[in-house]
């Protein structure tokens, strides 16, 4: 047996899921809204709207006890739900309740686009202020910066393994799952949390506004009339385990991550490669790792931001992949919660898992006149017996990621 | 700390190192540049296309290091323009980019935030796009037409080592033939005003299976977390089990008690050659700089080296090279 054979025998399964979105705290609220085709976007008032015009946002209803920077706060809640769902708890001696404790080497890979940035900006403003009156600048605060949300989760959930943060713009959540899967497959860990987190800030809202990517009306992925996206916030976390280790502890095995692929467009900082070439390569890489061909894919969760360029490029990539009869059913879920940027890739991996589990593909809100002949699910949920789903993510800088999620 | 072995062990075929200090003083086989106080930044000049006009110091530094690494690896024509002109050895879907950084374009983020606070200011879309951390990886991928695996780690001071490890995994596992990997840090003056924290620099390596004989190889990667003195033990144990006779601690914080603990902790395994690396407070680039220096050392000294990058939070990333 060669070492690569030994590696390929290690398989990665999902044993817990958690999410916080505009639909509420918990995966269930998100999944129910996705199935019902209910959007939680609401008009944003205040100074951002006054300066940049009409826009909608998907603000996550964080409970009052959730403290501090919002990406980290949401990620803690999502991680707690995922850990609990996986039948793992931080063992409390006095409780006397027999539950599996988190393994000592349980780590976390969190993806974020700009989560943790807000406290860093506060610090920059303090430095400038100190400068102006000749005072010494304050030290960089430990709760600031992109790595801070992951560290907060580690502290809150008593994770003692490696804590990593990846940032590949809007594909960060999927890239984080890809990284954690690789780490488990290679034998570097038996259990990792992975996912993404993002917060709605004036920084992010204004940036997307000046890039003219925000819609003043409805998000309409793959619709002819689409004119942009709405931003959301939240977090999504999965518990990933090596399959045999999960079986040994009789963990609830919800799905298997069969493959992951990440690629660069090498094309442009904001615009996707026009024919979705980079995304196509990410799909090919993920399917190759899963040892599947396109005909095995039963359902596609598209990135589907509702921007003119993204949806066109993504449709082109999917059209090349599924040459016959429009291919499998496709949904784009972002109109439910808004585009949660660094969290979206992980959130949508969870959506794929629930779709396979329930045999239901959620509808794509706002898509009434599809521009493509791909099989975009519209109106209501579609029943299907799919066992394998493909989840796609694309980000600024041409960062693409694809995940293959399968029934256990 | 748990280690993963790379099999086959990929080679480090070439290096690019850019620091504010003259890396010539490190007696390395790699070139360096002194870049401080150089607003015009004449060292990089590619053909004038849209991307290169928008590129910032962060991306430019990464590109300089990347070009140097490619030239040293002999996989692209020396002195070729960085945009538009194909470097046949590195371009294509089997070639990727993985970067580690802590603060990425922090200066740009600060500038954008100041503009945002000023209601009369015009906000720049291209400035906003460059506030995302993946910008340097995107710049390299774009400049060299590398359409393979792409990833950016922002985990803190371990990020550069994580990037090189992820590249080694891609190459070793067969998903890429060649990956440019390393770290880049350009925190800008805002961090400089806040104490002896971080300066700027970049270190990029060409990670590939096919390389001329004699190039150092990446043997294993470990990741863990430990309190200060325990971290020293962990590193010592790793050095012992991988038979490393050199340990390079890529950490420039003189105040870091972990470094001082090396003398105090008598039980710690101390390899024959222990080096503390000081090439500037490079944060996310630290681990990658450590690997570059370690490889340069291994060219002169036989045996294996353990390169350790440690974040002040206690995160440790370690690479075994030899």
Blueprint (SSEs and pairs):
The complex is a heterodimer of chains A (408) and B (322).
Chain A lengths: L2 H6 L3 E10 L2 E2 L1 H10 L5 E2 L3 H6 L3 E3 L11 H16 L2 E2 L10 E2 L5 E5 L5 H16 L15 H9 L6 E4 L5 H14 L5 E8 L3 H9 L20 E2 L1 E9 H6 L6 E10 L12 H14 L8 E3 L6 H14 L8 E2 L2 H4 L6 H15 L1 E2 L20 E2 L4 E8 L3 E8 L2
Parallel strand pairs in A: 4-10, 5-6, 7-8, 7-9, 13-14, 13-17
Antiparallel strand pairs in A: 1-2, 1-11, 1-12, 3-4, 9-11, 12-18, 15-16, 17-18
Chain B lengths: L1 E4 L5 E9 L30 H5 L2 H17 L21 E6 L5 H12 L7 H5 L5 H10 L5 E4 L5 H15 L4 E8 L3 H4 L8 E8 L9 E8 L2 H14 L2 E7 L6 H8 L8 E4 L9 H15 L3 E7 L4 E7 L1
Parallel strand pairs in B: 3-4, 3-5, 8-9, 8-10
Antiparallel strand pairs in B: 1-7, 2-6, 5-6, 7-11, 10-11
Low-confidence stretches of chain A: 1-7
Report the total helices of chain B.
Answer: 10
For the record, give the distance between the C-alpha atoms at the N and C termini of chain A, rounded to a whole number.
25 Å
What's the helix count of chain A? 13
| Class from secondary-structure proportions of chain A | alpha/beta
User: What integer value in Å does the Rg of chain A equal?
Assistant: 20 Å
What do these coordinates show?
The complex is a heterodimer of chains A (408) and B (322). With 408 residues, chain A is of the alpha/beta class. Chain A has helices spanning 3-8, 27-36, 47-52, 70-85, 117-132, 148-156, 172-185, 202-210, 243-248, 277-290, 308-321, 334-337, 344-358; strands at residues 12-21, 24-25, 42-43, 56-58, 88-89, 100-101, 107-111, 163-166, 191-198, 231-232, 234-242, 255-264, 299-301, 330-331, 360-361, 382-383, 388-395, 399-406. In chain A, helix 4 (70-85) crosses helix 6 (148-156) and helix 7 packs across helix 13 (344-358). Mean pLDDT of chain A is 91; it is low at 1-7. Chain B is 33% helix and 22% strand. Chain B has 10 helices and 11 strands. Chain B has helices spanning 50-54, 57-73, 106-117, 125-129, 135-144, 159-173, 189-192, 228-241, 257-264, 286-300, and strands spanning 2-5, 11-19, 95-100, 150-153, 178-185, 201-208, 218-225, 244-250, 273-276, 304-310, 315-321. Chain B has a 6-stranded mixed sheet, with helices on both faces. In chain B, strands 2-6-5-3-4 form a 5-stranded mixed sheet, with helices on both faces. The longest helix of chain B has 17 residues, at 57-73. Chain B is globular. In chain B, 61% of the residues are buried. Classes of the chains: A alpha/beta (408), B alpha/beta (322).
